[in-house]
Amino acid sequence: MEFWKKRTPAERLHHIEKALQENVNFSKDASLGYPASKLDGKVFYDDAPFLKDAPVLMTFVANPNHIGCHTTGTSEKAFKGTQQIERETLDILAVDIFGAEKNQFDGYIASGGTEANLQALWMYRNNFMKHFGAQPTEIAILASEDTHYSIAKGANLLLIDWLSVPVGFENRKIDKEALNTMLAVAMEKGKKYFIVVCNMGTTMFGSVDNPDDYCEVLENYNVPFSIHIDAAYGGFVYPFLAKETTALSFKNPKVSSITVDAHKMLQAPYGTGIFICRKRLIENVLTQEAQYVEGMDLTLSGSRSGANAVAVWMILNTYGPNGWFEKIKILQMRTDWFCQQLDQMKIAYFREPNMNIVTIKSAFIPEETAARFDLVPQKHNDQNQWYKVVLMEHVEVDHLNQLLEELKEATVTVTT
Ligand SMILES: *Cc1c(COP(=O)(O)O)cnc(C)c1O
After folding, report:
1. Phi-psi category of residue 267: left, alpha or beta, with phi > 0 → left and psi -120 to 50 → alpha
2. GO terms for molecular function, please (predicted)?
3. Over the stretch 48-95, which tens digit does the pLDDT of each residue have?
4. 8 A C-beta contact, residue 340 and residue 189
5. Half-sphere exposure of residue 376, counting CA atoms within 13 Å on the CB side?
């Protein structure tokens, strides 16, 4: 670990206070040109006594705007203190967790996984258009049927097709033969450039794609492609539990960008989706017309709160790498325990061993039970075949036991 450390509360407070001092202070400084200020003082009192010990809230009230991207070029100097906190946060994620080389990546804290995925698709679409002379109709996204719907959103916005790759019903793995056939058909129809989205933990199953499945088939056809990893949910789980994660990191030269959400497993406030990509790619989405923004703009969002960067930095530096590993390990143990109970009850489910999601076949779960425990169905219609249990921090063995007791009592006709 080059950047990631556990720090004491005093160290964290001091670090954030120092960063805020380097920002413009709307309470004191003569700052006349920005359409920005601290939060409304009648509603958000900046002299509330608890703020002095609460770095994230203090930043929230100071209201820094992190508009633009701060890993390359110049940035708005008024917020340079907290922009540095954002860079430190990205260093931990890109280098220490996802194996990037120091200073060899760009990125920013987006509004969420959706925006980070859109940013990736937008960047690759433009890259193929600018550097390969591609037409949007010649570009296609390849991603499994279990992929998050933000990819469908992106395909729609960017006017490129998404080819949804089927997965095995039981193992949720990419059907390579189907992929091969789809690709042949797509190329016949004029697709020449491919954007691959590999999942590190799908939303419904926690399933993890193997990028080599895509690479083998695409290399066989000798077509240009780029790989994005959607680790929105799994990015703070899988890398800590799996023995071998090289293929799904920047150590794999074929991977060029990653999405990870801090507002899911990391329990940061909403608005903390992280986008990271290799150097010399993000320029493809430069908006030169953003002339009032120092350094112009390389991000999908415009104004965004610097307090989000501070929140993610605070969580990471409160746990440190070992503290985070222990926390995730406990969730894995609970998931193991839950799966053992299901095995004993002969209830069928899918689970990726290095993830904390258990997706149970709906035939084993009465609808009232699913509703009582807020289990999420794969489909909100009569086609549903699965319900998932996500072992977040608040999901303890006692809660799981209540569900198991109900399932034991339920006289379900098992149809599978
Ligand atoms: C949640 C999720 C997203 C979208 O993230 P938001 O933060 O809700 O925008 C994208 N991909 C995966 C795999 C997710 O689990």
Report:
1. left
2. carbon-carbon lyase activity; pyridoxal phosphate binding
3. 999 999 999 999 999 999 999 999 988 888 999 999 999 999 999 999
4. no
5. 10
* Dist. CA 231–CA 312, nearest whole Å: 16
Q: How far is the CA of 272 from the centre of ligand 1 (A)?
A: 11
Tell how far the Cα of 270 is from the centroid of ligand 1, in angstroms: 11
Domain ranges (residues) in the chain = 321-415
Report the alpha-carbon distance of residue 98 to residue 334 in Å, rounded. 25
pLDDT digits (tens, 9 = 90+) for 322-339: 999 999 999 999 999 999
Q: Give 150 Cα–ligand 1 centroid separation in angstroms.
A: 7
Atom of ligand 1 nearest to the CA of 263: 7
CA 261 to ligand 1: nearest atom: 7
Q: What are phi and psi of 361, to 5 degrees?
A: -65, 135
pLDDT tens-digit series, residues 34-52: 888 899 999 998 889 999 9
In one-letter notation, the amino acid at residue 24 is V
Pocket of ligand 1 (CB under 6 A): 112-114, 117, 148, 150, 199, 202-203, 230, 232-233, 261, 273
User: Which ligand 1 atom lies nearest to the CA of residue 273?
Assistant: 7
Q: How far apart are CA 201 and CA 189, in angstroms?
A: 31
Alpha carbon separation from 41 to 3, 26, 38, 47, 48 (Å, rounded) = 36, 11, 8, 9, 11
What CATH class does 321-415 carry? alpha beta
pTM (global) more than 0.85 = yes
